[in-house]
Amino acid sequence: MKFLEQLSQKHAFICLQEHWLWTFEKDYIDKHIPGMMNHSRCHDVNDPISNFQIPRGRGGVAILWPSSLDSHVKKQEDGNERIIAIEIQIKLSLLTGFKNKASPKVRQLIQASKQKHREWDNARRPRNNHILFVEKKSTKRALPRQQRKDAAIEREQFLQRLEKDPNDKAFFQLIKRNQSSVQSNAPEILIDGVKTAKTPSSQRETFADYFKNLATPQENLNFKDELLTSSTNRCNLIKEVSKNITKKKILVTQQEILNAIQKLKNGKSPDEYGITAEHIKYPGNEITHIYQNIFNQIFEGGKVASSFKTGVITPVPKKGKDLTQATNYRGITVTSAHEKKYEYVLIEKAGLKNINQSNLQFGFTEGLSPTMAALILSEVYSEINGKDLLFITTLDSQKAFNVVNHQILLDKLYYLGVDIEYWDVIEDMYNGVTSTVKWQGDTSLSDHRFLIHPVKSNTIVKSVNKRTSERIQQTTENFTLGDKIMEFKSETTHLGLKRTTSEETKINITDRISLARRTLYSLIKTGVHGTNGLNPRTSCKIYQGYVIPCLLYGLETLNLQNKDTVALCSFHLSTLKHIQSLPKNSYISSLLASGSTANIC
């Protein structure tokens, strides 16, 4: 009974089932838990028994609630001696928590403010210098004052933690908490071809159809079907061979599953079922045996669970494009959390990381960066001598990852030596794949050859002499891509760097400084500025973590001259002076001695 008394003090509703409740005991509730109403039904309700005939292993059910809520509770006659129900008759409302948790002092002031207001109201609301009116105003003003004080203390503690242990998560928290809420930039009208969608639901369906059509291989007269046909025939032959041979048994260990779990990244968006990496990581060893059984069944049967083949697509607008056109959105897919873990196990078991690939593949090779490709291009250009010419053609793969044909890739995978046991499950992973389009807070269901984009593919001519480049560009016949003419351009973009016929380094330096300045302006709301902002140490760390990477990206692949370095140093030093509220003519040595970021000059 003492335990029930404690529960009644903490909870509004208490449910009892199969404990001690018989007909002759119903009054125990009123006796031992005063102030609580109840709806109870005993096991002997149809045939009451005495306290001398109590059998073991049986009991009744009851629901208890405070008498203050009795007007909102209606007893239901449904059920039997083991099941009862009540209906809570209240107006539904959206429950939201406090943005900032109230401190004990704030809670005391809230109660004091309410009490003073109640006393002032009971005294018929006197004015002027009446003691109750003065006390009410005083307590009312003290509350926001204490809230501002607590917010300042919490902010200072957060900044101290940020200085002590700077990390990406803390920096993003700082930026997010200082950003003002902005309205959605979703368009009022969405157009896909001849279809027009105005409501969020119709826009979701439009995106679903768009991404579905995008993922469906389309016939193209410029494609040679011999490769696709031969790859499809070989894949069918591989599947027939797989059915008629005895394959080795693949067993997954719990340690391999634990290793895969540790590779999952925290803080990512949930999948279609609302599962994140944290849901899988926190149980630890408690769930490894479950995944072990599932993965072993997948390898044994060669079939991947359908729940592993789902994804949530979020349309993200492309920079500087018309938001009313569905083609100007890029689909970002969040795949199943279970499938990610399965992929990590599969990659290690099949040794897919060790498969030979081109030495010029930098974008999908661990430990390498795409800037290596930019460096190779810069090195080639640096070797041009005399009258040598270099024709640079940049090709843009139009929606490459959406429409690439999997049969060709699977054929290549088997050719590279992947065991047929692993090939079977990889091939099945691409059968029956479904996606859900998420748009404006709701979702809609939806179910690879690639094209070289002729409009975005450009050719430029580089020479040691600027005039030679321009003359060759005017006299040389244009290149063609299929039946499309690729005109010579004076500028093209390659891996984020601009490649031009002349003054390439100067143009890229100007663009990098402009991007760094815009990034710095976007951080002003977080307090990254001089007077009345964050302390210089924190501001410099944010500057070093967010602005400097934008300033220096890709410049290591260019041949910088002294004037280019001077331009970078000028921006860097002026920014540090501004952060520390130092005059523009401050001596550089005093700036470096003040403990700012590392000198990049």
Which structural traits does this protein have?
601 residues, alpha+beta, 5 domains, four-stranded mixed β-sheet, three-stranded antiparallel β-sheet, 20 helices, 17 strands, 44% helix, 16% strand, extended
3D architecture notes:
This is Reverse transcriptase domain-containing protein. With about 600 residues, the chain is an alpha+beta fold. The chain has five domains: about 1-90, no CATH class; about 105-165; about 200-350 and about 405-445, no CATH class; about 360-400 and about 450-500, no CATH class; about 505-600. It has helices spanning about 1-10, 25-30, 105-120, 130-165, 170-180, 200-215, 225-245, 255-260, 275-280, 290-300, 335-350, 370-380, 400-405, 405-415, 420-430, 465-475, 505-520, 535-550, 560-580, 590-595; strands at about 15, 35-40, 60-65, 75-80, 85-90, 190, 195, 310-315, 330-335, 390-400, 435-440, 440-445, 450-465, 480, 485, 490-495, 495-500. The chain has a four-stranded mixed beta sheet with strand order 9-8-11-12. Strand 16 (about 490-495) and strand 17 form a beta hairpin. Helix 8 crosses helix 10 (about 290-300). The longest helix has about 35 residues, at about 130-165. The relative contact order is 0.07. The model is unreliable at about 445-455 (pLDDT under 50).
